[in-house]
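Ops channel
N.P.: pipeline sanity check, posting one input/output pair.
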């Protein structure tokens, strides 16, 4: 078997309404004035949590249903549409929050909680705790060791936590003939890292090139091995790819 190596290039929370109908996993987003990408659904509502009460600064023209209540905005798509710019204004600080919103018919749309650097009462911004070497390296190493090292060596970190991820066909992720399987996912330092097992289905050895062999909107991508054996080479025809993104895996794959 190939030697183990890594290329180094380098709340959950619940909002309870009167009917408790918005129980869903929430992604923390540390707002830095850059637009927040969010995919909403025609099938189910998403929830956006702000630090303070907000108002909507847009006319949605019949394509989005928006219900702002204090510092919570419930949002649902009325139709499928491509990315649109949506603005919210903080009524306390007058800060403008910019969102790039698009839609689909998913039953598990994204809900987010906006956190600003000034929110000391909600804990220190984890972006300030990024270790030497960078968040991408720390996340990749955490994921790899978690999966492939003996139990006694499994890492524990207050900044990185394992998260649930929907399993499904991720064949679009690769540009070559391969079987793909989502292994696990974590969140830390404001990013998502996902491990994808890739099995080569061609009778040809492949030298992995992150520039050409994978699809998706990734901040960082690295492979467990630099090459993958042909299909009949059962000891070497599988590797694990680690991708880091600002959004959950399935949204970044689109």
């Amino acid at each position: 078997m190939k030697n183990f190596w890594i290329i180094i290039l380098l709340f959950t929370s619940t909002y309870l309404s009167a009917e408790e109908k918005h129980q869903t996993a929430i992604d923390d987003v540390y707002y830095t004035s850059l637009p927040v990408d969010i995919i909403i659904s025609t099938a189910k509502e998403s929830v956006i949590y702000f630090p303070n009460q907000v108002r909507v600064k847009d006319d949605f023209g019949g394509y989005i249903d928006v219900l702002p209540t204090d510092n919570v905005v419930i949002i649902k798509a009325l139709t499928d549409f491509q990315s649109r710019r949506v603005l919210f204004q903080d009524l306390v600080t007058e800060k403008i929050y910019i969102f790039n919103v698009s839609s689909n018919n998913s039953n598990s749309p994204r809900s987010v909680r906006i956190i600003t650097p000034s929110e000391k009462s909600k804990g220190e911004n984890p972006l300030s705790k990024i270790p030497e070497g960078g968040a991408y390296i720390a996340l990749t190493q955490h994921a790899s060791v978690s999966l492939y090292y003996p139990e006694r060596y499994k890492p524990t970190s207050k900044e990185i936590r394992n998260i649930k991820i929907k399993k499904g066909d991720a064949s679009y992720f690769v540009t070559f003939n391969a079987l793909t399987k989502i292994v696990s996912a974590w969140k830390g330092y404001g990013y998502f890292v996902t491990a994808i097992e890739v099995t080569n289905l061609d009778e040809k050895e492949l030298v992995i090139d992150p520039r050409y062999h994978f699809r998706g909107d990734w901040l960082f991508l690295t492979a467990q091995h630099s090459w993958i054996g042909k299909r009949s080479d059962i000891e070497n025809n599988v590797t694990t790819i680690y991708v880091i993104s600002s959004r959950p895996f399935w949204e970044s794959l689109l």
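N.P.: looks fine end to end. The domain at 31-119 is CATH 2.60.40.1510 (Immunoglobulin-like).
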